[in-house]
Design goal:
CATH topology of the largest domain: Nucleoside Triphosphate Pyrophosphohydrolase
Number of strands: 9
CATH superfamily of the largest domain: Nucleoside Triphosphate Pyrophosphohydrolase
Strand content: 35-45%
Radius of gyration: 19 Å
Number of helices: 3
Largest sheet: 7 strands, mixed
Bound molecules: zinc ion
CATH architecture of the largest domain: Alpha-Beta Complex
Shape: elongated
CATH class of the largest domain: Alpha Beta
């Protein structure tokens, strides 16, 4: 799927019927924006970004990246990360996703930064990225990944899957040079 086609999916994936009562939804202003609303019950589709969490793991100047097995962006690389389950905290999500995608058990050391994701056709996202240490496990790609590898920070592949991850890589390079987290002058 080309990025253009993927982007069209963002607009295509609207509800048609009320998920509560199955009436046809109508576009109407609510809280100063046009939103899909149900004329029959109280349902209003507040379309919010989905939070995701992931980690930057550094081993001897090399950072852990995963190569994506499934759309979108099959074969592109990104930091290990994934969408939060409804009952998880961001840290719980991060620890679970790293275990699932890479086989590694991690301990979070601190929050790195929070990014907006506006180029994932599944949903807009909020990416919460942590710095973390590896405390166990064995490196092996999970079901979602073709490959997991520690990559030299000076030799990052050009095909990074999402804008938020590209920003994070640039921020992390600066952090390694200067010790300044994103947002710090
Ligand atoms: Zn309804």
């Amino acid at each position: 799927m080309r990025p253009d086609d993927e982007h069209k999916l963002i607009e295509a994936r609207h509800y048609t019927f009320c998920p509560w009562c199955a009436s046809s939804l109508v576009l109407k202003v609510a809280d100063s924006r046009e939103r899909l609303r149900c004329p029959n019950c109280d349902f209003i589709w507040y379309r919010n970004p989905i939070p995701a969490a992931g980690a930057i793991l550094n081993r001897d100047g090399r950072v852990l990246l995963v190569k994506r097995r499934y759309p979108p962006r099959v074969g592109d690389w990104c930091f290990p990360a994934g969408f939060m389950e409804y009952d998880e905290s961001p840290i719980e999500c991060c620890v679970r996703e790293i275990k699932e995608e890479t086989g590694l058990i991690i301990s979070i050391s601190r929050l790195f930064w929070v990014y907006s994701g506006h180029d994932d056709p599944r949903s807009n996202a909020v990416l919460i990225l942590y710095l973390a240490d590896i405390i166990g496990g064995e490196l092996a790609p999970g079901d979602d990944a073709v490959e997991v590898d520690f990559v030299s920070i000076d030799d990052i592949p050009s095909n990074i899957a999402f804008q938020a991850h590209r920003e994070a890589i640039a921020d992390y390079k600066r952090y390694l040079k200067t010790g300044r987290l994103p947002g710090e002058k």
